[in-house]
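Researcher: Watch the backbone:
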Amino acid sequence: MTDSAAKLDLEDELLTMGKWDASEATVSDDGLVRYISLENILAPRSKGRHVEKQFYKADVPIVERLLNRLYVAGHRGQKHYITSGINTGDSEKLWNVIEDAFEMIEEETGENPIQVLVDAIENSSPTEEVVTYQRGGARARKAVLVSPQRRVDLALRLIAQGAYEKRLTDPDSAAETLANEISQAANGNNDIRAVREKERREREAEGAR
């Protein structure tokens, strides 16, 4: 077997976490297709190789972006609303949490958990929000469209925050809490913080038009 053929076989066998094929997932929201990378990775080790590119996060596999958001799951606004410093830098622990959560999602739904994650992101990403600007001596508010990159960032942040906040008061494990948050967001359940916050932002934007 030639080196190129061996390399091709290795690439064909590469699955996320060695279990799931991210390329099987589909993004139904046309606006997010370019910004959700469905590349397979065995472990989250991009090591910043994308940072010199404009909009580099679009090239980072979506599962790795979820991991990166879990590092600072308690971060809200300009500060840590709830401390999550214990997560920072502990990739192996968080990767295992995500893997366990994905196994639970697959067992519960019978679907590729990466597809369920993509559905959760689509259901949690607001298309409009409100910005405040100054007009003369007064402040005014207006509705604006949210860029696709920010939509994905917001969805991941809201999913991570919702799971982390529940974990602090819930007897379930971190993996169980994360699995439930992703599954329910994928179903569009507005009892989930990510979906509820998305709907709140869009209602607020509608009122500011």
